Amino acid sequence: MKTVVxxxxxxxxxxxxxxxxxxxxxxxxxxADEDEIEAAENDQEEIDILIQxxxxxxMAALDVDKSKSKSSRIVxxxxxxxxxxxxxxxxxxxRHVSQLRxxxxxxxxxxxxxxxxxxxxxxxxxxxxxNDKKQLLFQ
Length: 139
Prior knowledge:
Blueprint: E1 13-15, H1 34-41, H2 44-68, E2 74-82, H3 85-90, H4 96-113, E3 117-122, H5 127-137
Parallel strand pairs: 1-2, 2-3
């Protein structure tokens, strides 16, 4: 089975954590009330552990890349901040805090490994001003 590392040696990659890497601590009890859920989701110790784990996963992938090829094919790290309302509300792992925590993990890894960090930012739309923007575009 071929992997991305087996691709043409002239191709390079940036590496980032998937939205599936949610970065939200999970409330232990499914019967928990709102306050308990909020406390669990904002547990700083758990958040720090999640960010550290994300950073370690990125570093492990960098190490695999280095061990499989003569020179590293991963040339940087990547984080996506997409605050489009549809994305934030409907796609798992895309809540604002989860995106920012993945960014923090990627930034820490980039500093540790002396790699550039590419950040893609997609601002959310404001339905109240969307029509105004469209009118300005087509005038």
